[in-house]
Specification:
The structure holds 2 protein chains of 2 kinds.
Chain A (H helix, E strand, L loop, with lengths): L4 E7 L10 H16 L6 E5 L12 H8 L6 E5 L5 H15 L4 E8 L6 H8 L17 H14 L3 H4 L1 H10 L13 H4 L4 E4 L1 E2 L9 E8 L8 E10 L14 H14 L8 E4 L4 H11 L7 H6 L11 E2 L4 H4 L7 H13 L13 E8 L4 E8 L3
Parallel strand pairs in A: 2-3, 2-4, 9-10, 9-11
Antiparallel strand pairs in A: 1-7, 1-8, 4-7, 5-6, 8-12, 11-12
Helix pairs in contact in A: 3-13, 5-10
Chain B lengths: L6 H6 L1 H6 L1 E5 L5 E2 L14 E5 L3 E10 L12 E8 L2 E6 L13 E12 L4 E10 L9
Antiparallel strand pairs in B: 1-2, 1-3, 4-5, 4-7, 5-6, 7-8
Classes of the chains: A alpha/beta, B mainly beta.
């Protein structure tokens, strides 16, 4: 059986890169990944981005990016799965390598959100949610997360201050990550007092708007040193809208994904040493954590407040990178950052908060309010 | 003002948008909104259109300050998760002082202007919900 290894990684710091377009951002990450993998040749280039779906953006983005990287002749494919695009791209690369369809695949996640004013970005991003009807309303990028936050607090009796420990955890971790957009800690007490985004959620519950690019090389028979092994990549579709979910506080797509991981690998999410978890908003983060089985319903923020998900806690360590909140969330690119971060943790080379002795971890994110969940399981190379 | 409102797009969803049309599955009996080509619960394609009740319960609400382009004059916008019989909808909550909102309150559907596109001259209407007015002087 062919295995799939991560042999090269490149990331740029998430931020406001006004001077660089998609090609330039992608090139910096991709060149670094290719150099560190020891070879410039690839069979295929998979690009994860949501940029192609925005006005005036490049179509056939994968073809254009591959061509701009000097990789003419490579097989190309663009992948879009909303918030989870980067993970879906790794899933595609893993399938190609495992099946033998390609032996060296470059995955590039790249997105740019800072070319326009925030209100336009909110308009674009509300299409992460059911867009045929729901996004005809002015739900913005944060509206549904706000609805879920109130529902969560009232159902479980979780107060605002407790919820605030989740983003504070992200920031406490992210301040050590040189690739994080926001490299500072925050006081949980400051969260409720910040600018309101979608009450009860504030700016400190919300991911920052930034640009980014990350790239990894996935290889079947490594020519050089392998950093980590991609053991499994899977995903599940869920309800197209939280209005249809049996329980809006349980993401069906995440529960199915976690159950399938257990079926295939024997692992639950609590067996992981590290977890990179998609938390564009505090409410989405705690609901995803609980739906995956990382915490009991209503307990994810309490667990975070008690230090369970940080180094020295019961574990796993969640969002050592800073998560969507502090590392940032350049939408289509983020999943590639997440897989790179887990691979660096299990190889002991992560330049931020290190989880000593980490042997396995997952990168997992849902798109929107759970239309699909994607998960990549990464293990150390033995 | 962005020219991003589409007449055909709005026309296609006139049933759910103006009349609260949902789909009921003839196989499992469950109702979902907005209507899909197959039942999200059992996968059956044997569906019929039903209208949701116009009165319901406010299960959650949020006051949105990060308002999308084209609607900033409406800020802040109150959004609600409304339980209508066997289904739920997300829509704007209108005619209310945000301070008076409480989960569990009864609301009723009204037709309201949702967005307009001045350049293209398009106005989009849709269902919003307002607190149910009680007889005997229940104020807004």
């Amino acid at each position: 059986m062919v295995e799939a290894y991560v042999t090269g990684i490149g990331m740029i710091r998430v931020g406001r890169h006004f001077g660089e377009g998609l090609r330039s951002l992608a090139a910096r990450a991709a060149f670094e990944a290719l150099e560190s993998s020891g070879s410039r040749d690839v069979d295929a280039v998979i690009v994860a981005s949501t940029a192609s779906y925005r006005g005036a953006a490049q179509l056939d983005l994968a073809g254009h990016i591959a061509g701009s990287l000097g990789l003419r002749g490579a097989q190309t494919l663009a992948v879009e799965a909303g918030d989870a695009s980067g993970l879906a791209a790794v899933e595609a690369a893993w399938s190609m390598v495992k099946s033998g369809a390609a032996s060296r695949v470059l995955v590039v996640g790249v997105d740019k959100l800072t070319d326009y004013v925030s209100s336009r970005v909110y308009r674009e991003l509300q299409r992460l949610y059911e867009a045929e009807l729901q996004a005809l309303y002015d739900i913005g990028h944060a509206g549904l997360a706000g609805l879920l936050a109130r529902l969560y607090m009232e159902r479980y009796g979780v107060d605002r201050e407790t919820l605030s420990y989740w983003p504070a955890m992200d920031h406490a971790h992210g301040k050590h990550n040189p690739y994080a957009m926001l490299q500072f800690a925050i006081d949980p007490k400051a969260v409720a007092k910040a600018l309101t985004v979608a009450e009860p959620l504030t700016l400190l519950d919300s991911f920052p708007i930034g640009d980014g690019a990350a790239a990894i090389v996935i290889e079947g028979e490594p020519r050089g040193e392998a950093l980590a092994r991609v053991a499994l990549a899977l995903s599940a579709a869920g309800y197209p809208s939280l209005t249809m979910a049996e329980d809006p506080l349980k993401m069906d797509s995440a529960a199915v994904t976690a159950a399938r991981m257990r079926e295939v690998s024997g692992y639950t999410i609590s067996d992981m040493d590290v977890v990179e978890l998609g938390d564009p908003f505090t409410s989405i983060g705690v609901i995803l954590a609980e739906s995956l089985g990382l915490s009991q319903p209503g307990k994810a923020a309490v667990d975070a407040a008690e230090g369970r998900f940080t180094v020295g806690g019961e574990g796993p360590v969640v969002n050592a990178s800073g998560g969507f909140k502090a590392r940032g969330h350049p939408i289509g690119a983020t999943g590639v950052y997440m897989v790179a971060e887990v691979a660096m943790q299990v190889s002991g080379s992560f330049p931020g908060l290190k989880v000593d002795g980490a042997r396995r971890g997952v990168a997992v994110a849902a798109s929107g309010d759970g239309s699909s969940t994607h998960l990549v399981l990464v293990e150390e190379v033995r | 003002m962005s020219m991003d409102l589409s007449v055909p797009e709005t026309w296609r969803v006139r049933g759910p948008l103006y009349r609260l049309e949902a789909a009921r599955c003839r196989a499992c009996g469950r109702i979902h909104y907005p209507p899909l080509p197959a039942c999200p619960y059992c996968g059956s394609r044997d569906l019929e259109r039903v209208r949701l009740p116009e009165r319901g319960i406010l299960e959650s609400f949020t006051i949105l300050y990060s308002v999308p382009e084209g609607s900033r004059h409406k800020a802040p916008i109150v959004l609600g998760l409304v339980r209508l019989g066997a289904a739920r909808v997300v829509a704007e909550i209108t005619d209310v002082d945000p301070g008076d909102l409480k989960t569990g309150m009864e609301v009723e559907a009204v037709l309201r202007r949702i967005r307009s596109d001045r350049e293209a001259g398009i106005i989009r209407y849709g269902i919003a919900f307002r607190p149910l007015l009680r007889g005997g002087g229940g104020g807004r």
